[in-house]
Records
---
Amino acid sequence: MAEEIGTSPDEVQFRFRDGEPVDHAAVTVDSFLDQSNAAAVRIEPGDDARDLLPYLDRLALVEVNFPTFGDGRGYSAARILREAGYAGELRAVGDVLIDQLASMRRCGFDSFASDKRLDEDDARAAFDRWHDVYQPAADTRSPIWAKRHGRG
Amino acid sequence: MYLYDQYDQAMVDARVAEFRDQTRRRLEGKLSEDQFKPLRLMNGLYLQLHAYMLRVAVPYGTLSSRQMHALADIADRYDRGYGHYTTRQNIQYNWIRLEDAPDILADLAAVEMHAIQTSGNCIRNISSDHFAGAAADELVDPRPYAELLRQWSSFHPEFTYLPRKFKIAVIASDTDRAAMKLHDIGIQIVRNEAGELGAAFYVGGGMGRTPMIAPLISDFVPLDQLITYAEACLRVYNRHGRRDNKYKARIKILVHELGPDEYTRQVEEEFAHLLDQGVEPPLAELERVKGYFELPETLRYPGAGRDPALAESLDSDLRQNDDFRLWFERNTHSHRHPDHVSAVISLKPVGGIPGDASAEQMHLMADLAREYSFDECRVMHTQNIVLPHVRISDLRALWTRLEAAGLGSPNLDTIEDIIACPGLDYCSLANARSIPVAQKISQRFAASGRTAVLGELKLKISGCINACGHHHAGHIGILGVDRKGKENYQLLLGGSEAQDTSLARITGPGFDEDGIVGAVEKATDVYLANRAEGERFLDTYRRIGMEPFKEALYG
Amino acid sequence: MIVLTGNDLKSGAVVWWTGADWSVHVDDAVDVGDEADIITAREEAARRVNAPYAIEAARDERGVRPAHIKDRIRALGPTVRPDLTLKPAEPDIGNWVI
């Protein structure tokens, strides 16, 4: 049995998908690849998100850990999963701070479980800060160039 | 030049609101300094030796007169009446209050400017050729591509917490005036054999403690894949760049450790994947942006040669005044339209602070840009200002007004035209002062009359290993170090940031402040004693090597 | 002596711990002995100072002189702009830094 890690549903402070937060204990990428039947996995900054691509259809939850907010590898991990069609819950965990929420959301995170409880008002303001965006990412927002050329 | 539409304006306005909110949370104690620091840095706000310092982005170095006036107003209203133009074509203010910073950003936004991503581990302000759009030798104006990259990289959600800072330069001439190969990504717009425009990508250059010249990783990326290719370069770096050691975190180390071939292979793989992801703006967007960079109507159609009446007017001015002639010969650059030149305003008066300009001088430069240069000026990475499109018959009047304001120094590309970082007088990272060394050198050479004899000689001074003063790329470089609590200066020779990019080598043991001035003089003695006809200092050094210089300095 | 320095959070001005408050004049600095960590933690938490740190200094006939050139420049101002230092009337004040 792989060692269980990960967050519980009541640690999820913000969520942008229907239904209840996925309540599976996550395992490490190594454990998962080592024949685990787990439906939830946790990616650490050094892990290669692409290792999970063959198994996306049996995953209900991917947690991406940010041990420190300054380590931005998790943003690429999230986009890579979404680009490959992963549609399950994608949860940012760890040192997740208010001023990173908007970028994380754009990279495909739809669930947020910070180490520390975030100020609700400040966090909502952060999620809603950017009316438009300059580039496409893993969300559904049209970039400014698409709007300029009638594709938005 | 580029003008914001309602989208661009809304983005900078939202950024001002965001930073106002972040500043409030910092002052209320909701954000610790550790949490706030990367946020303020991404808005160009440092904590320096004496106060906060604000670095304002000047995208590809281009400013309108209205923007230049606004920069002067900020110097007066929020700072101490001056600003410092940097080797990144930006401007920074040294005496900023945190409380004022959101208001300053709002003032900048009112003139379509910002301080976004002028620091932090993100994609920095995009730099370019200071003669872009004007130079006779360029293929196309590189700035539309830089603007496309500016928009793509602004608030890029995936690349805001890179392993380290990331600098991109775009040029479109075989003559490199932007130190392109010394950037994290250097892009040269080129034409292939089929006559199509595309982008050559050089990746993994840089200065700092481990200087490297960027290898070419793709000789031709089609223009409708430019952004996608840049995104692939960045994603490979974000995922695999080193994060265990700050000093090995720049992309140059990744490219070096993987080898250019393996890095390129990974980029090509990511690129192939990203081509299906729809990240590329349509060519119509490039065309829209290009429209803003169209030359003024009168400059668009160069005739066969110079208008005889204008040429005679210039010749007459040149005959009448030797000082004006010297300035014309040194400080102007040929324009694609023969009736015009690009004129360089030197911010290097003898004994002055390289790159500093008072608010008054900025106002004047703004006025001159409006009157003589189609409302446009440029910041050079050599810390001077360019008026890109000046009619030759207006030069005398322009020069007369520059002279009166202390801005007429005729010393472009001479030993007096020194690049110097702020050094220990202002910078908390510095180990030694740079500015006093620059002042003493320019005074020494101006007094001895040797400036003219030496011709082109690029001298660059950094006050620490981070190399903001580009010392690795100087024909003569000076690096300030801390030697047992005393300032000490190492001498380097043989660097270049032009198309013949090379990295300078250190001569040997360092010197104290007076000693380094004497050492520079000795190095120029060796050059004068050995130079062949037509050779610059750099050419002679490359021909005779380091030994004769070492012998003169230490023998 | 050990003195504490940092920057004022709002203005960014260089400040020195006087024993009761923060002053822009280095000569007001007091020896904090082995109390540096306690004072900096308390003052930073109260947001009365930003990025404080302790340095070596000596008191001589001219006042308090930080041991390192960087802190002497912080105490005075940029040596290349005497008009902007704290002692604009003393033209040779730059020598104090070196």
---
Amino acid sequence: MKFKAMTALAALAISAPMLFAGGADDDTLTIDGQEMITKTAAPAHMAETGIDTIMSGWHFREDDTQAMQMDTFDNPGMIAVDQATDAWNTVEGTAEKSCASCHEGPESMGGVRAVYPKWNAEAGEMRTLAMQINNCRTEQMGAEPYKYEKAEMTAMEALISVQSRGMPVNVAIDGPAAEYYEKGKEIYYTRYGQLELSCANCHEDNYGNYIRADHLSQGQINGFPTYRLKNAGLVQTHNRFRGCIRDTRAETFAVGSPEFVALEVYVASRGNGLSVEGPSVRQ
Amino acid sequence: MASGVKPRVKVPGSASAGEGIVIKTLISHPMESGQRKDGDGNPIPRSIINRFTCDFNGQNVIDVKMEPAISTNPYFEFEATVPEAGEFKFTWYDDDGSVYEDAKAITV
């Protein structure tokens, strides 16, 4: 008993400095042997933010959580990918088509996640991946759209994201996207709620520090949809935005709202250069 | 039958005789505990996987009884010694009587 207590103390002494030092770790993320870019130079448009290295949220999580993402089998988010693969091949709607009827295998979606949200010139609107999936469902398949944040939609996003795993995020912010970028940036720096916190207060000024027990990351969204252990399920970017704003004790924007689409454009562009990791695993 | 149930198993393809190997299994299942209530206050009936077994060439390796407090998508990782080439057979038993099976062959 005494020996146990001593070892426990010794372990605490060793781990304590690391625990309280904060900051990102220097581990390397490989998924099934494929190396991911989790730290890289910040894109040019972030020059004024004072951040010179952008880092995946993976670096801010504990070793156990990190390990879960390093093996596809251990990653619980892959269950959703399996389920979405079935949905991919399921014929639905009045046109009697499945995703596979037009796109063949899900592999054809390689590179898609990396460039979304993306301007759709034909429709003249900025589309998130979820909006594009629903557009396919309603226009091409004649099927009911998925609800924006429901499990089927999140799973389909996960399936499409995994096809781009390892590819660098490359969201356009010029041309018609510039307007959304500016609007998103404004939201990012606006203080919301009773606590008067903006995204930047935590994720730009204080990443690496603790907010009570939570280790603040840079708020990158390259790993979305994310399997959150506390939800035991996949979480979309907009869910996370809403959760963050709610935690400032503010009235939040709705999932799928124009405000969140703009914010997603801006936040995604802050991760230009990082690997697509979705579905990632977080606390 | 609970929807979306899909067993997944990871076993190395080969091992040397007498070697201990790590086996990982995961089954997607909601594992409804029976303690929760729906929006109208009615209890949601219990629906869990209550037993998991693994056999190697007819010999039992592990036999687990599961209770309602186990989280969704139960995951098991265990070690087994492989004396000879053969097949691991995995079986999950659902409350509703459904039985899910998977098998993986291993060479020595």
